[in-house]
Design the sequence.
């Protein structure tokens, strides 16, 4: 593949090894961070149209993570929109989702089942702060896991810095820098690896990627409680499998009602469903008279907690640079 239009910088949405990349201007820093140093990357401001082989291409906010975009394609009166991953809930760390009118909408369906309905995020963030405070009172550190790109920064923005110091895993701290460069306000954080191992961590919260859970890296914090923020935590079994102390249902994807509302807002008559529970979503849309079908992607079948929220899975991903 010579050219790629990238909706966002999560590993399962970036085609590695392309000659050149187009992404949103907002997402330029985080995408550059993940690609080879010599990759050609161009950032396009949201809403600005360019011509690619006679097709008018523009990018529109998807509200998923910093720089996430829906791709609008217009040719001969036909308008297609490819959503990438998206959410309609507000998020202070990225531009809000914007519905785009189109004839054909290609939507994700990561949480496309009626059981997925997110509680209000203010409640979830409040629960996290209450849990952190209780851990501090009990003299144990708080380890909060969330995907390093996007989820971690949204969590950081929701933490109450008055409770104690906020520490980060290297993978998170590195992306924090890209977020701050893009003008996103995050509370002060300290890279945990820069701290004396004999320090007292009992009042601290440590934000780390899920892959750090159960690793030797966690031992330095002494007695600690673990929690994981992910949409999958809505289902109790997912938390038990990972033997976590707490699960917090906070997702960067749309839940069932928001998915259906977002599809309706496009006015699309044809909907292609991909990345997730395609079958139930297609059935639901067809029953309502829409021309709907499932599209396979190269990455179909990623159902693991971390990967479905966008972890790199391709072996050519610069994963090693993400290790602490
Ligand atoms: Zn994603």
Sequence:
């Amino acid at each position: 593949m010579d050219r790629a239009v990238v909706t966002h910088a999560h590993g399962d949405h970036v085609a590695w090894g392309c000659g050149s990349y187009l992404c949103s201007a907002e997402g330029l820093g985080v995408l550059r961070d993940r690609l080879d140093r010599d990759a050609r990357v161009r950032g396009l401001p949201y809403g600005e149209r360019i011509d690619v082989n006679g097709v008018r291409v523009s990018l529109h906010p998807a509200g998923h993570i910093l720089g996430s975009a829906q791709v609008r394609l217009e040719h001969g009166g036909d308008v297609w929109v490819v959503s990438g991953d998206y959410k309609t809930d507000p998020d202070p760390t990225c531009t809000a989702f914007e519905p785009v009118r189109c004839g054909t909408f290609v939507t994700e369906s990561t949480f496309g089942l009626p059981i997925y309905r997110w509680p209000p995020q203010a409640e979830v963030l409040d629960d996290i702060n209450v849990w952190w405070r209780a851990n501090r009172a009990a003299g144990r550190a708080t380890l909060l896991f969330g995907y390093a790109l996007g989820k971690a920064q949204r969590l950081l923005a929701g933490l109450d810095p008055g409770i104690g110091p906020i520490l980060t895993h290297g993978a998170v701290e590195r992306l924090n820098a890209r977020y701050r460069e893009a003008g996103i306000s995050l509370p002060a954080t300290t890279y945990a690896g820069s701290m004396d191992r004999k320090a007292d961590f009992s009042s601290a919260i440590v934000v780390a990627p899920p892959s750090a859970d159960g690793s030797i890296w966690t031992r330095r914090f002494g007695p600690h409680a673990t929690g994981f923020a992910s949409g999958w935590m809505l289902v109790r079994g997912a938390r038990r499998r990972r033997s976590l102390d707490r699960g917090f249902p906070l997702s960067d994807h749309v839940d069932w009602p928001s998915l259906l509302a977002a599809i309706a807002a496009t006015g699309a008559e044809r909907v292609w469903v991909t990345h997730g529970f395609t079958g139930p979503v297609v059935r639901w849309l067809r029953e309502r008279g829409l021309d709907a079908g499932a599209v396979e992607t190269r990455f179909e079948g990623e159902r693991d907690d971390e990967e479905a929220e966008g972890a790199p899975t391709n072996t050519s991903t610069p994963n090693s640079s993400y290790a602490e």
Residues 121-137 form the longest helix (17 residues). The radius of gyration is 20 Å. Confidence is low (pLDDT under 50) at residues 300-324. DSSP finds eight helices and 16 strands in the chain.
